[in-house]
Amino acid sequence: MKNFKIIILLALSIIYVSCDDTEPITLLPVESKSITNLPALQTTDFTQSPPVTTGSFTKFSFKEGSQITGDNWDIAFRGTTILVNGGTKIGSLTDEPERTGEASLTLVTGTFSGVTKAPVDTDFLQDKTGSYALTTGSGNGWYTYAGPPTHLINPIAGKVLIIRTVNGNYAKMEIISYYKDNNPSILDNARYYSFNYQYNPNKGDKDFQ
Fold first, then answer.
1. Which of 48, 72, 104, 206 is the Cys-Cys partner for 124 at CB 3.0 to 4.6 Å?
2. Is the dihedral of CA 169, 174, 180, 186 positive or negative?
3. Cα atoms in the 13 Å half-sphere on the side-chain side of 164
4. Is the pTM of this model over 0.90?
5. How far lies 170's CA from each of 39, 51, 71, 151, in Å?
6. Taking the CA of residue 206 as centre, how many other CA atoms within 13 Å lie in the half-sphere pointing to its CB?
7. DSSP for 173-191?
8. Checking DSSP bridges between strand 170-179 and strand 190-200, what pairing results, if any?
9. How many other CB atoms sit within 10 Å of the CB of residue 139?
10. φ and ψ at residue 5, rounded to 5 degrees
11. Beta strand pairing call for 159-164 and 31-39
12. CA proximity to 165, closest of 93, 64, 20, 77
């Protein structure tokens, strides 16, 4: 009986010390940033049938907060097309980068400030042959096309892009403009993205607050 009591006391001491040594996990704050005039240039040869579009995709990393050239990109831009670094090549694009990560994305409806948490993982998609994770075409994804005579590309209000990055973090972004300095009156100003985003540096944490 005496030995049993000693064992109990030792067990309680170990539990107490273990609990006492445990420190609360400190989360890093969510980062809020704005990107202005990110180029997404392309060239289309209309003499061919069908027309052929060429040009390098601009790779962007939310962790770095900037355009990058390496393989650790999260999303990539060219014209109105946005790729994600997860899945496989679309197959119909020229100059398309290889997917080297497991990033994914989804498009949700709501105000940028009102989206405070990333949705369930089953809502996220990756690129695959013949299909974009972020649907293209006027009214199908993030933009509308006005057609002639203006040919304007306008972001759809209330569309928020949620990205699960190559590192397993979460980011949300809203596209503000498709034109340099938000000035569509000059033809050459097209294909320059400005957007706001928030990035959670804590891997796997879906909160944006």
1. 104
2. positive
3. 24
4. no
5. 23, 36, 18, 33
6. 9
7. EEEEEEEGGG-TTSGGGEE
8. antiparallel
9. 9
10. -65, -40
11. unpaired
12. 64
Q: Using DSSP, state whether 48 is helix, strand or coil.
A: coil
pLDDT in tens, 165-189: 999 999 999 999 999 999 999 999 9
Nearest alpha-carbon partner for 199 in 176, 172, 175 = 172
Structure tokens belonging to residue 43: 């060239």
Three-state DSSP at 12 gives helix
Three-state DSSP class for residue 3 = helix
For the cut 60, the answer to whether the pLDDT of residue 52 exceeds it is yes
Locate 190 and state its tokens: 């097209």
Task: Find out whether 202 and 193 touch, Cβ atoms under 8 Å.
Answer: no
Whether the Cβ atoms of residue 60 and residue 74 lie closer than 8 Å to each other: yes
Predicted confidence (pLDDT) per residue in 127-167, tens digit: 999 999 999 999 999 999 999 999 999 999 999 999 999 99
Q: Which residues pair with 86 in a beta bridge?
A: 102
Which whole-number Å values give the CA distances from 44 to 22, 49, 55, 143, 148, in the listed order? 60, 11, 9, 20, 18
Alpha carbon distance 108, 91 (integer Å): 26
Contact 33, 199 (CB under 8 A): yes
Tell me the per-residue pLDDT of 92-119, one tens digit each, with 9 for 90 and over: 899 999 999 999 999 999 999 999 999 9
Q: How many angstroms separate the Cα of 10 from the Cα of each of 2, 14, 16, 18? A: 13, 6, 10, 12
